């Protein structure tokens, strides 16, 4: 799909930010951030100067199963920045992107932003008020919903001929997600006869994805309820809130 790189994107994608976290686990309201990355890139996928990378002491032991994924054990974060210092920095840095009208792209955004939301509450920081978020996973599941196979970042990177240098490293995952997202937006939206019309603004795309995310969750819940009748869908994008 390299030919899609030649297609022109709208001016509101001239600069995007890419965001990723690595955490202590998968419980969105209870687990903690261990590493995070926020970098800016242009529409050609070139990473711009001035990005941020964080290593945090999460304040709780890192389960071995999580450490084996991202490579950070308790000994690596013992002297790291406390979450009470790092989480406000992450929130403020993302707020600045939104204030400048820069969309923030995260692959499976509901994971990273929900973790960050509850980390903000835990550290007495006002949670994000969102500008535009771009989630390649939501776009992929909606527009290419019948494709077989995995939908994780590694699979998406392979499909869109993107190099994933070091999976589960926050910066590398964020940058790879940016390249995947830009390639995907070109492929689905920017062709002469696009798969779907390109939204007029980043906020329009954000609102479209919020609707799509709820539709994906409703479909998943319907499938799960075949075996677990009382399964309840977890709506909300880019933040899933507890009941």
Task: Please explain how this structure is put together.
By secondary structure, this protein is α/β, with parallel strands linked by helices. It has one domain: Nucleotidyltransferase, domain 5 (2-Layer Sandwich), CATH 3.30.420. It has helices at 64-70, 74-77, 83-99, 109-122, 136-143, 153-159, 170-189, 202-224; strands at residues 15-23, 33-42, 52-57, 81-82, 104-105, 133-134. Strands 4-3-2-1-5-6 form a six-stranded mixed sheet, sandwiched between helices. Helix 4 links the parallel strand 5 and strand 6. The N and C termini lie far apart (41 Å).
Gyration radius, rounded: 18 Å
Strand order of the largest sheet: 4-3-2-1-5-6
Question: Can you tell me the CATH architecture?
Answer: 2-Layer Sandwich
Mean pLDDT: 93
CATH topology: Nucleotidyltransferase, domain 5
Assembly level: single chain
pLDDT under 50 segments (min length 5)?
none
- End-to-end Cα distance, whole Å, is 41 Å
Largest sheet entry: 6 strands, mixed
CATH superfamily: Ribonuclease H-like superfamily/Ribonuclease H
Number of H- or I-type helical stretches: 8
SSE ordering? EEEHHEHEHEHHHH
Task: Give me a quick take on this structure.
Helix content is 41%, strand content 13%. It has 243 residues and is α/β, with parallel strands linked by helices.
């Amino acid at each position: 799909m390299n030919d899609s790189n030649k297609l022109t994107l709208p001016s509101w994608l001239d600069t995007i930010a890419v965001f990723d976290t690595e955490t202590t686990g998968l419980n969105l309201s209870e687990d903690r951030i261990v590493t995070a990355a926020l970098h800016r890139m242009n529409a050609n996928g070139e990473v711009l100067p001035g990005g941020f990378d964080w290593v945090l002491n999460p304040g709780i032991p890192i389960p071995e199963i999580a450490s084996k994924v991202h490579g950070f054990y308790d000994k690596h974060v013992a002297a790291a920045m406390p979450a009470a210092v790092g989480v406000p920095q992450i929130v403020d840095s993302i707020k600045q992107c939104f204030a400048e009208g820069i969309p923030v792209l995260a692959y499976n955004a509901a994971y990273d932003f929900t973790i960050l939301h509850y980390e903000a509450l835990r550290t007495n920081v006002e949670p994000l008020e969102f500008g535009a978020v771009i989630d390649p996973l939501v776009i992929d599941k909606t527009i290419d919903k019948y494709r077989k196979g995995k939908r994780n970042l590694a699979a998406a990177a392979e499909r869109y001929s993107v190099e994933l240098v070091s999976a589960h490293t926050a910066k590398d995952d964020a940058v790879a997600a940016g390249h995947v997202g830009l390639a995907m937006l070109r492929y689905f939206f920017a062709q002469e006869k696009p798969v779907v019309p390109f939204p007029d603004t980043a906020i329009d795309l954000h609102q479209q994805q919020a609707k799509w995310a709820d539709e994906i969750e409703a479909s998943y819940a319907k499938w799960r309820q075949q075996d677990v009748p009382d399964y309840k869908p977890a709506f909300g994008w880019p933040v899933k809130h507890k009941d």
